[in-house]
Amino acid sequence: MAIIRALKSTHNKFMLSRYLLLALVLINLLLLGWFMAKPQSPNPLPEPAQNNSSADLRASDASIPQLKLLSEVAAGDQLIDSCATIGPLDNTNMVRRLRERLGAYTSRIRERQTEARVERGYWVYLPVAESRDAALEFTNQLASMGISDYFVVTTGEMQNAVSVGLFNDIQRAQARQQQLQALGFNISLGARREYETHYWLDYQLLDDVESPWRSISASMPEIRKYSIQCWDEG
Q1: Torsion of CA 141, 147, 149, 154, to 10 degrees
Q2: Which helix (H) or strand (E) covers residue 12, if one does?
Q3: What is the pLDDT of residue 50?
Q4: How many CB atoms neighbour CB 138 within 10 A?
Q5: Of 134, 131, 119, which Cα lies nearest the Cα of 173?
């Protein structure tokens, strides 16, 4: 009997320890779940840096130009060192007339010329021959086949080439090329390029005057006005 009572007592203590262990595990699981479900407070963000005032920015780097929106420019203000140019003008007569119209509005004005390479249609030709005699031989062959619209180039980098047509329309130029190719000639087709002089008037308006550009552009719609940096008088 004593042995049975001892076994029962040992069994009861074992069961009690087991229940206590299970209770501790359950409590730990509950605490873990509570911590995981609790919303975490975010780490505080650093304070934003203070913006310097515009005066501070100007003082820190005097080389930075002060810019203004066009909407902020007062009616009588002039942008510093700002001029304009009008062109391209086709001839000196246009330059003279426009200079007279601008004279009363400008503090300074000057004429300027540029060279522009422009395309003027299409050129059909035989490539440069070895000599003028060889080029003339080509023209004799053309004449014998009833082709009369040709000439020999006498100057420039295309000297001794034989021109067989100048056209404004690419389709007509291609038709001419195909016609002569069918007769056995080695015919080239290219853009016809020339240099032409463009004239410009650069000027700076007087203070407190209204630009005459509106009336100028109404009477001369083919020209344009551009803003430019003012030039050095020296």
Answers
A1: 0
A2: helix 2-37
A3: 36
A4: 20
A5: 119
**For residues 31 and 23, what is the distance between their CA atoms, to the nearest angstrom?**
12
**Residue 123 bridge partners (DSSP):** 166, 190
The sheet that has 162-167: what strands, in order across it? 151-152, 162-167, 106-126, 188-205, 82-89, 224-229
Which residues have a Cβ under 8 Å from the Cβ of 78 and sit 6 or more positions away?
205, 207
Tokens representing residue 220 in the block:
């001369």
- 209 vs 130: CA distance, rounded Å: 64
Whole-prediction pTM: 0.46
How far is it, in rounded angstroms, from Cα 197 to Cα 131? 32
The SS3 of residue 61 is coil
Domains of the chain: 76-115+196-229 (3.30.70), 118-195 (3.30.70)
Distance, CA of 78 to CA of 66 (rounded, Å): 14
Question: With a cut of 70, which residues of the chain have pLDDT below it?
Answer: 1-26, 28-81, 234
